[in-house]
Design a protein that fits this description.
binds magnesium ion, about 35% helix, binds adenosine-5'-triphosphate, alpha+beta
């Protein structure tokens, strides 16, 4: 049980951290072609731009749980927890067979509790003073309460001592392999088709708001909607077991247009090496993809390309978006 960190690549697609200069609008043409234009112009701008404004101190409003560049909260291991907290967890979870730290899971406290009676439970915790951590728990709990098949089930939420605790089911599965030919790509598509964009209204932060520093006002309007979004379909968040995919880490869930998670999945396929034509054929089998209003995908591509182009670890995505969407002209 160590304090070790990180294994799968951290997901930063939905976690803008830098303020960029505002864009020019992309041109006309097909929606996908407009994304290509946006990606190209972002790449051009990236090549000539002076260093951008200062890095935000943390995530902008509306993003819960960002811990990548933000200062990580001091970590509490199961063995470090006061016995009263351990007992409180046990009281809610049932007799405990074993408990261990979940070093891959971010936050101030993350332990997997194995019980005699049911499947393992993942308990996450944030201190009362950790607003960002608590916002992430709130989002995670709100989504878990929807009882969706592809979301870890809600077990309980409790305030214990100075801790805000959330327990969900611990999914036994492996990170998805999204490379060409992998059956996991089919399972990801099945999951997105079944999810069908649940409506969430006011219970989650608005997706568009997190992009306000990177988007024009009309672009932001195109990123508004009322559907449940995960906002990071990276392989580490898509756990596969048997014949189904479950999506974990809903701490940055938001409400927005129904097609957004399919767009993130499309980029992941591009990163995993799918030829553009194949990736686009795949995404078009997901019904919510076609619900994007004219200009919406272009706005999404423009906003993300600006952000990606400025982040050293993500700049490659601009190229990927170009290649991916460059193959889309039917
Ligand atoms: N309910 C769960 N069941 C099983 N494994 C989980 C669950 N939640 C998270 N994990 C595992 O822990 C990893 C990290 O969890 P999570 O994404 O919540 O942390 P994080 O701090 O947001 O990390 P990252 O920045 O990489 O997304 C996931 O990629 C997944 O492998
Ligand atoms: Mg995560």
């Amino acid at each position: 049980m160590g304090r070790g960190r990180r294994r799968t690549p951290r997901c930063a697609a939905s976690r803008p951290l830098r303020q960029l200069s505002l864009p020019r609008r992309s041109g006309g043409g097909s929606r996908e072609a407009a994304i290509v234009d946006a990606a190209r112009s972002a790449a051009r701008r990236a090549g000539r731009r002076a260093p951008g404004p200062a890095v935000h101190g943390g995530d902008p409003p509306g993003i819960g749980g960002g811990r990548m560049e933000a200062v990580a909260p001091a970590r509490s291991r199961w063995v470090d927890l006061p016995p009263a907290i351990q007992r409180a967890i046990e009281a809610r979870t049932g007799p405990v067979r074993g408990a261990w730290d979940a070093p891959d899971v971010g936050g101030a406290l993350a332990v997997v509790v194995d019980t005699w009676t049911e499947t393992s439970v993942l308990v996450r915790g944030a201190r009362f003073g950790d607003q960002q951590g608590r916002d992430a728990l709130r989002a995670e709990a709100a989504v878990a309460a929807l009882e969706l098949e592809h979301v870890p089930a809600l077990r309980w939420r409790a305030a214990v001592g100075t801790w805000d605790l959330l327990a969900t089911s611990h999914v036994s599965g492996r990170p998805a392999d999204l490379s060409p030919g992998s059956v996991d790509v089919t399972l990801l598509g099945d999951m997105l088709r079944k999810a069908r964009g649940s409506t969430v209204r006011g219970m989650l932060p608005e997706y568009a708001d997190r992009w306000s520093a990177w988007a024009t006002r009309p672009e932001l309007e195109r990123l508004r909607g009322s559907h449940l979004l995960h906002t990071c379909m990276c392989p580490g968040h898509v756990l596969v077991s048997h014949d189904r995919a479950t999506v974990v880490d809903w701490g940055r869930a938001a409400r927005g247009p129904a097609w957004v998670d399919a767009a993130y999945a499309l980029v992941q396929l591009g990163e995993a090496g799918h030829p553009p034509d194949a990736a686009l054929r795949w995404v078009r089998t997901i019904p919510v993809w076609s619900t994007a209003l004219p200009g919406a995908l272009a706005a999404w591509g423009a906003v993300h390309s600006r952000y990606w182009a400025e982040q050293p670890s993500l700049a490659g995505r601009v190229e990927i978006a170009q290649e991916l969407l460059g193959g889309s002209h039917d």
